[in-house]
Amino acid sequence: MNLAEIHWTAQSSYPILAALQLLPLLAIVLILSLRGRAAVYPTAIGLAVAELLLSFDLYRHFDPAESAMQLAEQLPLLPLLDYHAAVDGMSVLFILLTAVLSLLLVLYAQVRKLANSTTFLAMVFAIEASLQGMFVTLDLLWFTLLSAVELLLIAYLLQRWAKAPQDDMAMGRYLQFMGIGLLLLLAGVFMLGWNHADATGGQWSFNLHDLTMVTVPVEIQSVIFFLLFYGIGIRIPLFPLHGWLPLVAEHGTIAVAGIFLLGLKTGIYGLVRFVLPLLPEAVLRWHDWVVAFALTGIFYAAILALMQVNLRRMLAFAVISHTGVIIIGLFSLSHAAFQGSILLSTTFGTATACLLLMSGFVYRRTRTLLLPRLGGLFGHLPVIGIAFLIAGLSIIGMPGTPGFDAVHLLLEAAILEFGAMVTIAAALGNVAAAAFLLWAFQRTFLAPLAEGMPAPEIEPAMPMERIIAVVLIMILLGTGFYSEPWLNLLEHSFDGLTALYDGNGHAGTLDLAGH
Amino acid sequence: MMFMSDSGFPLLSLMIMTLPIGAGLIWLVPDPRKARWIALLTALIDLALTLAIVTGFDHSTGDFQFVEQHAWIPTLHIQFHIGVDGMSVLFLPLTVLLFTGVILASWTSVRTLPRLYYTLLLILESATLGIFCALETILFFLFWELTLVPIFFLISLWGIGPQRRYAAVKYTLMMLTGGVPLLFGFLLLAFNHASLNGMGIPDGLVFDYPSLLSTPLPAELQTAVFFLLLLGFAVKAPVFPLHTWLPTIAMEGPASIAAIMTGLKLGVYGLIRFTIPLAPAAAQEYHWLIAGLGVVAILYGALMALGQTNLRRMLAFSSLSHVGLVLLGIASFNLQGIQGALFQLLNFSIVAGGIFLLTGFLHHRVGSTDIISLGGAASSMPLLAALFFLFGLASMGVPGTSGFPAEFLLILSALDTHTGAGLAALAGIVLGAAYFLGIYRRAFLGQIHNSAVADAIDLRARELVVIVVMGILILTAGFYPDSVLELTRTASENWVSTLSGK
Question: How many angstroms separate the CA of residue B353 from the nearest CA in chain A?
Fold first, then answer.
């Protein structure tokens, strides 16, 4: 696998990647120093906007025609832990999404008037910093440690701002699952480093460049693959490792934790960045199994989603269901597959974030998200309703939303790899998703309020709520009708991966007579 | 089929884009009560545009005209490519006319969220026009699926039945499921093109309709494409046994949606435009399947219609029966068959659309369309009853109405190629007369026994205008069918020769 790099000095006048990670840290300090003053919110919004502008600057400096890792920065820190950052198109996409979602969350915090707002805003920036760090680093250990930091920060969110009586249960279950996931991940990372030391005569390294230089013996590839795959799979979450999500969704914070965990598909990113390039033989050996599980998960979660009476739990199962589609795409292992599934994971991420934010706005008024108690909100909150529906349609993959172009690519790849049957099943899974999302939309927004329910005072949408909803609608529809720039951004990100899997005798050929 | 690239004024895009612009304007004008005026004005401007297109259309050639072609998403090999030929050009003014009628028919009956209602109608109209113009399979699919969102809302929010939300979900899910085989059919065609070009995937993928038409398709792949596209369009048409959404929509949805659903048979259009020309050999091999589906639909629809006690359900089953006859005509693969089929499809948009609008007027006055609460409606609403009868005659295919030449051509071609099926179709026409006259007698004639019927006022000027314009078109096309047949002839001849050529 070719991992050429372009140093940041060749492309930019300042180290953008370092700035991206340091700005949120600076924001934490500033916000904490302003604790309790009126200037906290404006400062936070300003800093979040600055981070977004910085990400756009990154997008501007990034050259999508180049397949090498770009804007690289390197600084030796500890013996085993070098700071080594560089980006390709995929990371740029995730960085942009992180900046957008963090800004929306800062705005959301202002609308919801959450308790302890200063601490809350500081938490948002802390998580943003850890996420940006994960998306730029090329060091596997660094990625794992930041992942641990991020998950702990989210645990704190769950403990502090949970919206349900059984919040301990949500946090407990979350910590158990994530702890195990992190241990598995750490074990896998450790084995990779050990293998490197073994091959190079005692020189440990967790750097992606170094790790790709040595081949992992086939006997232990499978072990490492399972450690890393399960470790990451728990956080994605993949069926059947999703046990923590419905509980966290039901008892945890309504939007905030969910957006960081589900809106930004860090797990998918980790699979593409580290697992697929490092363990090709194990991936090829096991990918049929992975896809079989993913396919089961799509339908299992879709059926469970249809049975939920709580909008929060329903959205959790929706996420598990659509993750299956991304995994099928990813493990089709071709250029279109990588491009499609990364675009799809950012689309699903944005759409999920939109669904969660809109549910948050609904909760602010109704104080419940039990579907039988909701209804008739569309007349009061049309913009929020439309944003909810468009996000739902993006998850279904409706043409005109970014979901379609991504699913389209993904299906093309999946037909070549797994044949028509699996692909048709995956596409039908999307229809199943349509069933529960449309039903939830009708139940929440269109159906009349149930008999005997006291009609709550529905306050019309505030300007800030409208802004958030309209921004999300514009992102989704804008990308939906014109996805070219994002596809372009990803055009050369997977050249190395594609070459790796094609080189392994794994070139997709269409068996036209077969179906 | 070749296509002509005249780089003139982008009339088709203008026609498609006028409507969303009008929809946007509705939200800029502060008074929500102005929404209907803006919608009507937009629809009328669009009507003028479509008439300009028909006038400028050159029917001596079978090529695509008013063609526009631009790059859209080059990475995915998707382009923006629209144009019309003789088979699709007449659908444009009739679609706009039907939507204009729907806007006028909703004038006073839509009170809740009027802005949203008219916005959705205009978007639906725009997407429908896009379906008729798209010359790119993915673009077609985009417009095809885009119609679902407004329809979902229109049924859920303004439906007249208590089960309207169930009906909306049922319709949307059936259509999304039907979309899966469609998309796969289009992908298979693109894959085939890529493998024949030797450019590999994804570089050689092509979704352009004229290019796909000229790409030969291996036999086994043709069968797959044929069945995928047949299935996808059969859900929309609807074809028995995938028709169950239609009676539900007719009962639960608003009259406007019922009129659009029965008036615009997009599924059958897709069958003519895509399924058969793109998989010609398979279509000819399985002609018996199309004809068989047609016969079953004719008889099943007619028999079911005979047993209905509600005008709206009766009309839904009658529409199913009429679609069956069109399928039978298509299955003959000759000039009379396809011309009859196109004529009948155009006819639906006025006759079926108009009769559903009339039923909507009736429902608005009486609060029901069940014959138990009707009876004697002709004495209090003579104009409505008389016009209902005229539209009924047209749907039966009585000479002098536009239904006659269409059904005549269809029956003629069916008797010629599938004699047994043609005889069954004749029986269906007899049944058609029976169910229509039977229910008409019970609903409109006899004694009045419901005070709501007695107090009902006859058609207002606004309603009358819509129906009379449609009625004049029915009679004109009935007496001078040549004007329509002339427009569709060259393209139809091309269509038939494509089939026999391969």
Answer: 27
